Amino acid sequence: MAIRRNLRRHFLIVGTLIIVAGLVAASDTLHDNTEAIIFWTEGIISQAPVLGMLAFVLLAMLSAMVAFFSSALLAPIAIYAWGNATCLALLWCGWFLGGIASFCIGRFFGRSAVSMIIGEDKIANWESQVGKRTRFIHILFFQAVVPSEIPGYVLGILRYRFLLYLTALGITEIPYALATVYLGESFLKGDSMIFILVGIGMIVLAVFLFQIHRRLVRQGTD
């Protein structure tokens, strides 16, 4: 029940942010003001493009490790500065590196360190869903549906096989990175309806994948 509660809260927060961003995109005044901030930021980035890319990757990495920040908020800036393909690559790299870092913290620093970052309750809730010898398909869905700051820490604590974790991490981050870039592009264009529909579609997909994940968990315990 705690897991369902946490996921419902997570989906509610994400859904609310998507709707708010969609309303901003729909408002000419708010969108113009936001666009002005994006243009101003891009002007700073253009003076040191390599440093700007590095900063974006580091922020994406941070967003994959903690819950209070999302690099998706910076996607419109990255798209305007470097284009869709580069933004996609940088976003994926940042999330991938963040997953590696969280796994290593769990693996080498243990439960006490992880509990200070994400809380003991989250560790206890999610470690009941996976184990050291959990099948790869199960880990794939686990990585896909659980908030991004959770899997690496939990699987690191459980000492799950590192290469299998990296494979699951790399695969599952691709569709989310693609969707984030598409959302960022829609926001820049002011396509509020497309933005909201794609965002809600991502949440529906995540809920569907979670149902498959739950079924796999039940089958594994039968």
Quick summary:
This protein has one domain (2-221).
Secondary-structure topology with pairs:
Layout: H1 2-26, H2 28-47, H3 49-63, H4 75-82, H5 84-118, H6 120-127, H7 136-145, H8 151-157, H9 162-189, H10 192-221
Keywords:
mainly alpha; 222 residues; 84% helix; 10 helices
Structural description of this entry:
This protein is mostly helical and 222 residues long. The chain has one domain. The chain is built from 10 helices and no strands. Helix 5 crosses helix 6. The longest helix is centred in the middle third of the chain and has 35 residues, at 84-118. It starts with a helix and ends with a helix. The model has no long low-confidence stretch (mean pLDDT 81).
Query: What is the β-strand count?
Result: 0
Mean pLDDT: 81
Rg, rounded, reads 18 Å
The total number of structural domains is 1
Q: Please give the alpha-carbon distance between the first and last residues.
A: 19 Å
User: What are the secondary-structure elements, in order, as H or E?
Assistant: HHHHHHHHHH
Question: What percentage of the residues does DSSP assign to strands (E)?
Answer: under 5%
What does the overall shape look like?
globular
Unreliable residue runs: none
Q: Provide the structure class.
A: mainly alpha
Largest sheet: none
